[in-house]
Specification:
Layout: E1 6-10, H1 14-27, E2 32-36, H2 39-48, E3 53-56, H3 66-77, E4 82-86, H4 90-99, E5 104-107, H5 113-136, H6 139-143, E6 145-146, E7 156-157, E8 160-161, H7 166-177, E9 182-184, H8 185-189, H9 198-215, E10 222-225, E11 229-232
Parallel strand pairs: 1-2, 1-3, 3-4, 4-5
Antiparallel strand pairs: 6-7, 7-8, 9-11, 10-11
Helix pairs in contact: 1-5, 2-3, 7-9
């Protein structure tokens, strides 16, 4: 039985589909690739097969948001990682796709083969790591936060991805790397590119807490230290949220 990952490319433009397939096969020789060109065939395949990664266009034929429906179907079935490749403007659609739990978004005509392969392989590795964690971790280990120190992305909490904007990810990483210690507001200013004030930091921390509580309503590991900053504590009190 083949141990190579299996990938689905869902793209209605045949030349683009062929190009993406070529890039995928260049990235991982021997990889198994299925190509689908419309929503109906794609949804049937998603229900039938368990892919390791799906590369997906948003607009398929005359259906402007067919890809959105497919992502929703994937999330309901098994949560396969999705890399969206679309002509829709990234400034608008990247945040929309992130809210739908797509793993990344590339806008057509703004990236080349190297960019695609880097993103593709990063998602494939992260998905493999998540699968290992889900099958090998003990219940206690699953409660721990997992952050890739090189990419500082795709934080995993209890085996599930935490959906966070990039700045919030950086703040989370700063807190978690120094868990048990107070990280001052001034130190957190160093990880944000704009809005270097206490109110803005508090808003980012609130975003982080909300994202965790979507997965774990009892999450309470980030403590507010009045006048100083915040602290990640694995033993934070459960009788009050700060």
């Amino acid at each position: 039985m083949s141990t190579e990952p299996r990938v689905a490319i869902i793209e209605d433009d045949i030349p683009t589909s062929k190009q993406l397939r070529g890039w995928v096969e260049a990235a991982r020789p021997g990889i198994r690739v299925d190509q689908w060109f419309n929503r109906d065939d794609a949804e049937a395949a998603i229900a039938r097969e368990r892919y390791d990664l799906v590369v997906l266009d948003i607009e398929l034929g005359r259906e402007r948001h067919a890809g959105v429906a497919i992502i929703n179907a994937i999330n309901k079935l098994h949560g396969t990682p999705v890399l969206v490749v679309s002509a829709m403007p990234a400034t608008i659609y990247r945040s929309i796709m992130k809210a739908l739990d797509a793993w990344d978004y590339l806008q057509k005509t703004t990236f080349g083969e190297a960019d695609f392969i880097d993103t593709f392989l990063e998602i494939l590795r992260a998905a493999k790591d998540r699968k290992v964690e889900a099958t090998e971790s003990t219940p206690a280990e699953k409660r721990e936060l997992s952050i890739d120190p090189l990419r500082q992305s795709t934080p995993i909490w209890r085996g599930q991805r935490v959906n966070l904007p990039l700045t919030a990810q950086r703040i989370l990483d700063a807190l978690y790397q120094r868990r048990g210690e107070v990280v001052s507001y001034e130190e957190l200013y160093g990880v944000v590119k704009s809005g270097r004030n206490r109110d803005n930091i508090r808003k980012h921390v609130s975003t982080i807490r909300d994202a965790f509580r979507e997965l774990d309503p009892d999450f309470d590991c980030i403590e507010n230290i009045p006048m100083r900053g915040f602290r990640w504590s694995d033993t934070a009190p459960s009788n009050g949220r700060h």
